Design the sequence.
């Protein structure tokens, strides 16, 4: 591959995950000559020692924006998985001139002023409220069963790596002023084995909007970068 064919991918993980979840996909993209960044958001994964009540959605947005600034990233494909739909939506307001393609990988697609806490399912809401009542700063992360991890070999690995998710990130309204909509290439990817009505609605919304591309990964759970990294790689390289 010539240098001019090399692309830059910035991959942002979901709740309770970390940069580790992208390893298989990142290895495949790197082997093809691409640059890949898989930052871990503050308070989870190998940065779980930084978990505190002061971690907010803006903290995570700044985590992403700073990777672009310090690594001099331009013309990148920015991918947000699951919860990171909130993060990349907000980050785009500061990264509009640095992102050429935006991918929501089985992810939330919020509108301006919405909050993560209002999007939690019944079980997550109970855990969230219980944590707040006890004065805790996090709620349990998802497990492999909830994520619908497809390979039995991956179950123990995933469950050993998931960390609690800071609850502060769900309390701030996201600020979206139109930068996301102006990205030339936008893709929404759905993994229907994972039940999530809000993701179903996001897929239909994007299908109805000619500025969006959509894709469905039928045989993946909620972590498609684990279940089928080749399929995710092919989708990203098709952009």
Sequence:
């Amino acid at each position: 591959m010539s240098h001019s064919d090399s692309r830059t991918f910035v991959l942002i993980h979901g709740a309770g995950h970390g940069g580790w979840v992208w390893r298989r996909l990142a290895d495949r993209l790197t082997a093809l000559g691409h640059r890949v960044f898989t930052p871990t958001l503050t308070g989870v994964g190998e940065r779980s020692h930084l978990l505190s009540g002061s971690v907010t959605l803006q903290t995570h947005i700044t985590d992403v924006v700073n990777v672009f600034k310090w690594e001099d990233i331009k013309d990148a494909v920015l991918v947000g998985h699951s919860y990171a739909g909130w993060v990349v939506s907000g980050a785009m307001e500061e990264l509009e001139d640095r992102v050429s393609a935006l991918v929501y990988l089985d992810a939330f697609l919020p509108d301006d002023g919405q909050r993560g806490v209002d999007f939690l399912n019944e079980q997550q809401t109970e855990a969230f409220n219980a944590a707040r009542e006890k004065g805790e700063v996090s709620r349990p992360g998802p497990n492999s069963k909830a994520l619908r991890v497809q390979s039995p070999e991956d179950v123990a690995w995933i469950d050993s790596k998931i960390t609690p998710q800071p609850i502060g990130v769900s309390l701030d309204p996201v600020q979206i002023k139109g930068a996301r909509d102006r990205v030339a290439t936008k893709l929404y990817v759905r993994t229907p084995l994972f039940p999530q009505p809000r993701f179903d609605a996001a897929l239909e919304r994007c299908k109805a909007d000619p500025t969006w591309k959509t894709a469905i990964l039928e045989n993946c759970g909620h972590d498609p970068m684990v279940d089928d990294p080749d399929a995710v790689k092919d989708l990203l390289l098709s952009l």
Remarks:
- The domain at 3-237 is CATH 3.40.50.1820 (Rossmann fold).
- The chain has ten helices and eight strands.
- The first helix runs from residue 23 to 31.
- The two ends are 17 Å apart (CA to CA).
